[in-house]
Amino acid sequence: MTTTPVVRAEHLRKAYGSTVAVADVSLSVERGEIYGVLGRNGAGKTTTVEMIAGLRRPDGGTVSVLGLDPTTHAAALHQKVGLQLQESAMPDRLRVREALDLYASFYADPADPADLLDLLGLTAKRDAAFKDLSGGQKQRLSVALALVGRPELAILDELTTGLDPHARRETWAVVEAIRDAGVTIMLVTHLMEEAERLCDRIALIASGRVAAVGTPAQIVALAHGEQVLRVRPAAPVADDVLLAALTGVPGVRDARVEDRALVVHGGGAVVQDVLVALARHDVRTSDVRLERASLEDAFVSLTGVGPDDPAPALQTAGSATEV
Ligand SMILES: Nc1ncnc2c1ncn2[C@@H]1O[C@H](COP(=O)(O)OP(=O)(O)OP(=O)(O)O)[C@@H](O)[C@H]1O
């Protein structure tokens, strides 16, 4: 039996002036899943979910959320979609319970604020002012506010950024509890570990496009399946001739010449295919080395971001690998 996806986005595109934030994004989120939108800073994740939430009008493509078009059914979707955006700010002196009561007043049938405080571990902080909350407590309050309208879909953007590992883990448990309560979740993150731990499926976004979609295991397998082949021609061959020999070879994701050796990143039967292609172009090889790519190599390759790209290098925050 097939069910209608909660979110269906097809060929979304959005530019800010000459900056193309989202070039071509298609994805579909099924009911009840935690769907990760994973990518580096600036990859286009926030712009994508803002279009899904109806906060930005796409320049191209279509979006359907719970069967409705967010640009024309904003009011109806406001009642059904909970949104937690990056770094939500509140007036300093607003108390936790007051914030919840205020947001609850926007909805016809809000959740019980006491239940939400309980779910998010904020009951002891109900009378605390916003400015006196820790980073993790502020984040959890922003999630409570996103849930107060009893949404069918919750969009959580960079939920654990800036949190220490303990607060991060607590927040992850909350996300799982929300899903167990029947809410479909879109989780925007640049933390590989977070996506791996929480998400049923992940769309890996790079340069405004979907680089890969799959379960965390599939994405990791894809990443770990990455190979790096280093081939040195037996006699000098011009760089462009070497690279031209690889045109159309399946499995090749990146190729360059380094110190007269051809360095190829790819997956599948890339080793065999590259050697056959070189032989076909009469390039004899004197030295062939196969390296298993690091996770960093694999993600660079999967996301199509080269080492000379101005994007920040991969970092490790706590134990999480950042993409
Ligand atoms: N309001 C805006 N005006 C102009 N450019 C913008 C605007 N919002 C985003 N951009 C640019 O669009 C690109 C994608 O940004 P976006 O925020 O969607 O990416 P992201 O993957 O969510 O990154 P981050 O995690 O850093 O928020 C970036 O180059 C960003 O600088």
From TrEMBL:
<keyword id="KW-0046">Antibiotic resistance</keyword>
<keyword id="KW-0813">Transport</keyword>
<dbReference type="InterPro" id="IPR017871">
    <property type="entry name" value="ABC_transporter-like_CS"/>
</dbReference>
<dbReference type="InterPro" id="IPR003439">
    <property type="entry name" value="ABC_transporter-like_ATP-bd"/>
</dbReference>
<keyword id="KW-0547">Nucleotide-binding</keyword>
<feature type="domain" description="ABC transporter">
    <location>
        <begin position="7"/>
        <end position="232"/>
    </location>
</feature>
<dbReference type="InterPro" id="IPR003593">
    <property type="entry name" value="AAA+_ATPase"/>
</dbReference>
<dbReference type="InterPro" id="IPR027417">
    <property type="entry name" value="P-loop_NTPase"/>
</dbReference>
<dbReference type="Pfam" id="PF00005">
    <property type="entry name" value="ABC_tran"/>
</dbReference>
<dbReference type="InterPro" id="IPR050763">
    <property type="entry name" value="ABC_transporter_ATP-binding"/>
</dbReference>
<protein>
    <recommendedName>
        <fullName>ABC transporter domain-containing protein</fullName>
    </recommendedName>
</protein>
<keyword id="KW-0067">ATP-binding</keyword>
